[in-house]
Amino acid sequence: MPYLGPAVAIAALLYTIVSARSKANNEAVTGLDERLDDVEDKVTVLDQKLRSLPDKDAMHRLELSMERLTGNVEVLGERIKPVAATCQRLQEALERKS
Question: Taking the chain (98 residues) in consecutive chunks of 10 residues, what is each chunk's mean pLDDT?
Fold first, then answer.
């Protein structure tokens, strides 16, 4: 029985050390959980943004449409040149009459 007192003291010391480590570990895990939640939120936002972007086929269709529009604008530019020339001649004629 003379060893009972020191044995209880050692047991209490070990319990204190283990529980202190456990508490520190719990705090660390809680901090990591919060960081993980933040990362999950960011990944969710990025995933939603990526889903809203056009895919390869949609981009190809957009490129083709833009090429057609560029061609149409060039054709319109050529068709407007005679109208612009006529307007210029009318302007000159009006200036001569004035």
Answer: 72 71 74 89 95 94 97 95 94 90
Token pair for residue 3?
Answer: 């060893």
Classified as helix, coil or strand, 70 is: helix
Same domain, 4 and 49: yes
Contact of 54 with 62, CB cutoff 8 Å:
yes
45 plus 88 within the same structural domain: no
Give residue 54's pLDDT: 92
DSSP string, 36-61: HHHHHHHHHHHHHHHHHS--HHHHHH
The pLDDT of residue 20: 64
Give the residue numbers spanning the domain of 20: 1-53
46 and 61 both lie in a single domain: no
Domain count, the chain: 2
Please tell me the distance from the alpha carbon of residue 84 to that of residue 79, in angstroms, as a whole number: 9
pLDDT, residue 18, reads: 67
